[in-house]
Design goal:
single chain, 650 residues, alpha/beta, FAD/NAD(P)-binding domain, eight-stranded mixed β-sheet, 23 strands, globular, binds flavin-adenine dinucleotide
Length: 650
């Protein structure tokens, strides 16, 4: 199936599209020259199904540790190669060059690849209607399909993936660590803090699996879902209007991330530099090197653009916002998932304090200004997620990154002035000013309120991310991951469908657009307390996720990987400010200081005895705990009882 290497000249757009897809290896063999590096380039004849083609490429890729491309033709695994120190030079410029090149040979979007039901063949009656082909819609459709239900999935754009397909940048990565934002179980997990390309690959695999049974319809907008289960929709290609009836409707159309919020600053036209929003790959053609970048905003996209700017050589990055966002190092996010939980999914408070202490210390040592919300007892400002980034810390340490409070009052040719009198010189402005909420949902459903269990009214659910508010820590079975929260909600759907029960509203009514995480968390806690069986299933789910974390990287492996990443950032940024001495790794001893948690019987979910379900994980953890707590003990046995005895306080 795999052809001989082709030379660059063979890879004209005309030659490649649409009969071939391409992947690029990092070895210095014959092929394509980019930034003076030769890449092997292979073209694969389009196979009978996209899945077969993709599997063939993955097989090859797995054996060679290299970058490979397909699907929407964006770079995959380039960053990973860098982390494991392979010969693939995955310098961001190279990544960009390859991405640019591959954009020219883009393969069709899912509406072509998945196959869809023609407009006139959309049935007039279906059992389950899922609206939205983002991650939520696909996971819900999968669950319903696996329960043997007839499913129609309607999506208004021409592709699957939702925000990952339309708003994310190529440089975007999942904030949550990999095992808690996993769409597929596969032999080789994604990179940690998975980049867009891998998420989109998984999304397409999922859609491909679903397309065997689920009816897909793209470029079709659902405009009305009535109480009597009459549904109206519009074919966005022909503007034709259709209707159908469904027994159950699942609106999976997002809440928090609607359209990009566009705004214009006073005198923006006078600015001589470039202005972007930092989403939808709009900075793709921008040269960040040696520029002073002003990022406006404090959310996840602001942090992401700061990271991208720093990695791609910006001279200085200033992040300007009304209030500072909360940014945590990768290790803090990892610990939130891998630490054992009590039966109600809370972590040990003393351990959490230790983590917060070190996290705060890292702010001080790296000269990062703390977010104001911490003084108010909030982990992050309302509506904001906690962004995860180590380059935030190293960038600040080297003086390449700073945060400022204020709002832009006026833009002039080379700088902005703020309402509080700051003047910030800059070459580029990136307006990470967030997203509108999805207001259309209220009109579609003809309701302004929903319920805490996400059932709006009988057999109509609206499943979407809640608005982040003052939740402290992660006392939830889903941690900080929305994907995990969807997986847990599937449990309620599964129970109702299996028992052929109607989906009924539960909980107080809440505003549909402003449904808060804290309310959802309280509801889940009360619901699980009332339903011991559900509680047990949730505990099993959390334990399985914890095991996945241990399989992906136990504490020692994680720290090794994290230190390597820290060092890479130090090398990268030091080159721009060589006189500054290297910063020490700030999280030395952090995980080790929590070792006793894994033997604490009051934390039964994910502690050492519970890890026995996977003998290897159990053995590894036991020996790691031993090395942390009783380094000189000769008599250690891997059984948790004798281990507990050996560390019992006098
Ligand atoms: C770069 C990035 C990083 C992220 N990182 C994290 C993270 O680390 N952890 C986390 O928990 N979350 C993260 N998120 C949040 C993310 O929004 C969710 O995790 C998840 O992808 C949301 O999926 P969704 O399917 O609910 O919504 P969407 O992806 O928005 O999908 C909704 C779909 O519905 C379609 N639609 C809307 N209205 C209609 C209609 N009327 N008719 C038909 N179709 C319609 C839309 O076209 C869209 O395809 C991140 C998001 C981004 C962009």
């Amino acid at each position: 199936m795999i052809s001989q290497p082709l030379t660059f000249t063979n890879l004209s757009t005309h030659y490649v599209k649409p009969q071939y897809r391409i992947f690029v290896s990092g070895s210095h063999a014959a092929g394509l020259t980019l930034n003076d590096v030769l890449y092997e380039v292979y073209a694969i004849p389009a196979a009978s199904s996209p899945r077969q083609l993709w599997d063939a490429m993955k097989l090859y890729a797995d054996s060679r540790n290299f970058a490979y491309f397909a699907g929407d033709a964006t770079l995959r695994l380039g960053f990973e190669a860098e982390i494991v120190g392979s010969s693939l030079p995955s310098a961001p410029e190279v990544v960009e060059d390859i991405s640019e090149f591959l954009d020219k040979i883009k393969v069709p979007s899912a509406s072509h690849a998945v196959g869809e039901v023609p407009f006139e063949q959309i049935p007039s009656q279906v059992d389950c209607l899922v609206v939205g082909a983002g991650i939520t819609g696909l996971l819900v459709a999968q669950e319903l399909m696996d329960l043997g239900k007839e499913v129609l999935l309607v999506e208004k754009s021409d592709d699957v993936g939702g925000v990952w397909r339309h708003q994310a940048n190529k440089t975007s990565r999942v904030n949550t660590s990999e095992p808690a934002y996993r769409l597929l179980s596969k032999a080789r997990p994604n990179m940690d803090h998975t980049p867009t390309a891998q998420i989109m690959d998984d999304v397409r695999s999922l859609a491909d699996r679903l397309s065997q049974k689920v009816m897909f319809r793209f470029q079709t907008t659902v405009t009305r879902v009535e109480e009597n289960m009459n549904i109206q929709f519009t074919d966005d290609r022909s503007s034709e209007i259709g209707s159908l009836r469904a027994n159950r409707v699942f609106m999976c159309v997002n809440r928090r991330l609607g359209n990009v919020r566009r705004l214009e600053f006073s005198n923006e036209a006078k600015f001589k530099g470039e202005i972007f929003y930092g989403v939808e790959n709009d900075t793709r053609s921008m040269q960040w090197k040696d520029k002073h970048i002003l990022i406006v905003g404090a959310g996840a996209f602001a942090t992401e653009n700061a990271r991208t700017a720093l990695e791609l050589g910006a001279k200085k990055v200033t992040v300007l916002s009304r209030r500072r966002g909360s940014v945590c190092p990768l290790i803090v996010d990892y610990l939130n998932f891998i630490r054992p939980y009590d039966a109600q999914f809370a972590h040990d408070r003393a351990g959490s304090n230790k983590i917060f202490h070190k996290w705060r210390r890292a702010f001080k040592d790296c000269k990062v200004t703390e977010p104001e919300c911490w003084q108010e007892g909030l982990m992050s400002p309302k509506g904001h997620t906690i962004s995860v980034s180590d380059s935030w810390f190293v960038g600040h340490y080297y003086g390449l990154l700073e945060t400022q409070l204020g709002e832009i009052q006026d833009v002039s040719d080379t700088h902005v002035t703020t309402t509080n009198g700051l003047r910030i010189d800059c070459d580029v402005i990136v307006k990470c000013t967030g997203f509108e909420k999805n207001h259309a949902i209220k009109d579609i459903l003809g309701e302004s309120r929903t319920h805490e269990n996400n059932v709006v009214r009988q057999n109509t659910m609206y499943i979407a991310e809640a608005i982040l508010d003052n939740i402290m820590g992660y006392k939830t079975p889903f941690g900080s991951s929305y994907v995990e929260s969807v997986k847990l909600q599937l449990q309620a759907i599964r129970e109702a469908v299996k028992e052929d029960r109607a989906l009924m509203p539960d909980g107080e009514g809440i505003d549909m657009s402003d449904s808060l995480v804290s309310k959802a968390v309280d509801y889940i806690a009360a619901d699980l307390t009332k339903n011991p069986e559900r509680q047990l299933t949730a505990q099993k789910h959390v334990l399985e996720r914890t095991l996945n974390y241990h399989r992906r990287f136990g504490p020692a492996d994680f720290v090794a990987e994290n230190k390597a990443e820290w060092l890479r950032l130090v090398r990268l940024f030091k080159a721009r400010n060589p006189s500054v001495p290297d910063p020490p790794y700030p999280f030395e001893g952090m995980i080790e200081s929590l070792a006793e948690e894994w033997t604490n019987p009051s934390l039964p979910v994910g502690n050492l005895p519970s890890l026995r379900g996977d003998a290897e994980v159990h053995r590894n953890m036991a020996s790691w705990i031993k090395s942390c707590l009783t380094p000189s003990s000769e008599s250690f046995s891997s059984s948790s009882e004798s281990f507990s005895a050996s560390i019992a306080p006098n």
